[in-house]
Amino acid sequence: MNIILIGFLAVLVLLTGISAAGKITTLETTPLVNSTAWECAPVWSEDGTGLFYASNESGNFDILRVDADGTNKTRITNDSADEFPSFSWSTWENGSIIDRIVYISQSVGSDIWIIDADGTNESKLTDSGYNIDPALVCVPLPQISGMQPSGTIDNNMPAVSSNFSCSYGNISAVNLSVDGIDVTSNANITDSNVSYSPIEPLDCGDHNFTVRVESDLYTVGYGYRFFTIAYITNQKPTCVSNSTPTISANISCSYGSIATVTISVDGVNVTSNATIADSYISYTPTEPLLNGTHNATVCANSTHGINDSMTWVFYVNSYYPPGGGGGAGGGGYSCAPKIVFASNRSGNFDIWMMNMDGTGLMQLTNSPSNETHPVAVDSKTVYVSDESGSRDLWSMDLNGSNKQQLTSSAVDECMPAWSPIGGIVYTQRSCGGDDYNLFAMNTDGTGKTRLTNNPLDELSPVFSQSPYQLKVAYAIENDDSDIWTTSFKETDNKVRIWHLEGWYVLVCREVYGNEVCLELAKNGTMVDQEIVAINESFSMSCSGDTIITGTLHNINRSDDSAFEVSLVNVTQYSGGGGVLFSDATKILTNAPIRLCAMRGDLNSDSEITSTDAAIVLEIAVGSRPCDPETLAIADVSGDGRVSSLDALMILQNCTTSLCRK
């Protein structure tokens, strides 16, 4: 009897290990907006400092905003139609960041609108069919590279050229402008290059050219380049302590040659006393120059009659050394924002795409089934389809190709959204009921993990994009609907966010060669930042409340821009100087949090059922193959093999409350 009891207890102990391989744990779950009204459709602001949502507190549904802590409620819309926010979007315009909201407005039908976050500049984007579920997606732009000429050149007839490529669609049009004049008709255009030679020589001075490449999928790439044509370069001096400095400049001309050259100092022509060579002119004053500001001018005339002149100022003072200079660079966009949405304008619901102003409409799916709830995840569009009977999650490329089914259970999976945990968060109905819970999974459909588990419905999940927190907002429906949030904490030694004492977190935002940018934050707000090199110590603090010290030990980078930053000897002190923890080690990364499959869940439906036990028995008798990944899931007992014991443990689990459905 004792042997039987001990064996049964051992089974129960092992049974409690049938769960997601824990890399995250719940920190707290709190109500954010909780009233007698119906609040739903939460949407985080892009910086994570606020949340937009829909509420019927005034009768119909309007869009409101609260801070991330639930305070400072503000009304954004106040119309007779019902309005539900779908996503927020920020742009840089005229030196300012403009926050916008894309939303659904439903009166007689359903259309997509856009509005500034302050409630102004409202604009309708759709006018046909019943349109729902808009989401932001960024598609690659045509790329411009190898633009020439650049910098300073001495040729008045330069070859203007640029390479281009397109990974999203095909090139449909190429345009080239020089100094604001369209010269496309005189340009030579191939599949990947555009080139142009001026018909008339360009004057000396500053010039620019622009390359515009358009794809057949309504994307446009731009390239800009500035260049200067000058015969006179490398002028000296700028600031000297010598009262008889050598005043000089280089001279060159590849369009013809230099015919004449002159030099003046303080308005006096001194060419007769200058030294002139094929590519150089210099002059040394015969009398000392007074302390103070002086100017020099060099003029050059080419054999084609084109003139160039350069005037510069220099300073003479024996008490001050020469000064220095600097430069600047720039960059451009590599992707374009667009809106993907569901519409029944073609009969059933399909996924469509359009530009942010409603133009450039494209149909991405076209099947007898209904496709809804599109969302951008990495370089894919994830959406819901009822093609297999129940609602499942699918993915496809941004242009609608390479469709792949991610879930295939008998219950509904819907409302997908981007997630820093795994990649996709969604809501799933429980077997045999209408209870919806939140789940997360990897972008390839593996690692399905339950995030919430209560008898109420959790719907419309949306993760904050803040780099300082893993927080999901969602609607809980019972007698009414309220907005709740749940925060998570990583438990691995390698994390995106390191949770410290006192609600502080430490993250690595960027890697620059042998240096990294570390940021200390509290309650979702950065409080300190430091650039640290390998083997260098750091010290970060927040108004004397806490101090974090440590050393950057190593940096590892992969080809896909992911990094791992190793920190050692990390110690946290309280404001009073007490040690909260010491000599800790952690790896900070920007890689996605990959989820592991649930032990015992052989059919990947995030439930432990008798179906899983039947699959284990098939593996045990050799009628079903078992690769290493399947073995790790099926070997519930942990003895390194799959046997009837594993099936028994799964069946026992189905009859207890240890794993709720």
From TrEMBL:
Record domain Dockerin: where: 595-661
InterPro entries, A to Z: 6-blade_b-propeller_TolB-like (IPR011042), Dockerin_1_rpt (IPR002105), Dockerin_dom (IPR016134), Dockerin_dom_sf (IPR036439), Ig-like_fold (IPR013783), LRP1-like_beta_prop (IPR032485), WD40 (IPR011659)
GO molecular function, one term: hydrolase activity, hydrolyzing O-glycosyl compounds
GO biological process terms on file: polysaccharide catabolic process
Superkingdom in the source lineage: Archaea
PANTHER family in the cross-refs: PROTEIN TOLB, PROTEIN TOLB HOMOLOG
Sequence similarity: Belongs to the TolB family.
Name assigned to this protein: Protein TolB
The organism of origin for this protein: Candidatus Argoarchaeum ethanivorans
Organism phylogeny: Archaea, Methanobacteriati, Methanobacteriota, Stenosarchaea group, Methanomicrobia
